[in-house]
Amino acid sequence: MELDFIGIDPETGKDGSPTVWVDHERGEIVIQGWSGSEELMATISGTSWAADHTPGIPEGETVNRIPARMVPILREACNVAERAGL
Predict the structure, then answer these.
(1) How far, in Å, CA of 17 to CA of 28, rounded?
(2) What is the DSSP letter of 15?
C-alpha cells in the first residue's frame, strides 16, 4: 500500500503529529490524530446523532482528534481524492 502524504499539523513538529494521507488504492483518506479520551468516547457512545445511526463506536473503529487548524490540509486531501476519482 502506498499513501500520498498530504500534510502534517504545522504547529506540532515532525514527530507524532496529526497527519493526513490519501490511499488511492483503497479510495480512502487516512488520518493520524490524538486518541479520543475516555470522556469523549463515553459522550459519543451515549449520543444519538440521528434516527438512522446507532450510538457508540463499532468494533474495529476509533475516534481521532485533530486540530481545527488542519482544515486546509483536510480540504486538500478531499481535493486530491476527488481529482483522482476515488
Answers:
(1) 20
(2) S
CA angle 77, 11, 33 (to 5 degrees): 55
Average pLDDT (40-58) is 72
Residue 65 phi/psi, 5° resolution?
Answer: -115, 135
* Cβ 70 vs Cβ 18: under 8 Å: yes
Angle at 24 between CA 22 and CA 28, to 5 degrees: 55
Rg (CA), the chain: 15
List the Cα angle 83/67/44 in 5-degree steps: 95
Residue type, 31: I
Number of domains comprising the chain:
1
Question: Does pLDDT of 38 surpass 80?
Answer: yes
Whether 54 shows a pLDDT value over 80: the answer reads no
| Helical segments of the chain, H only | 38-45, 71-83
Distance CA 5, CA 33 (A): 14
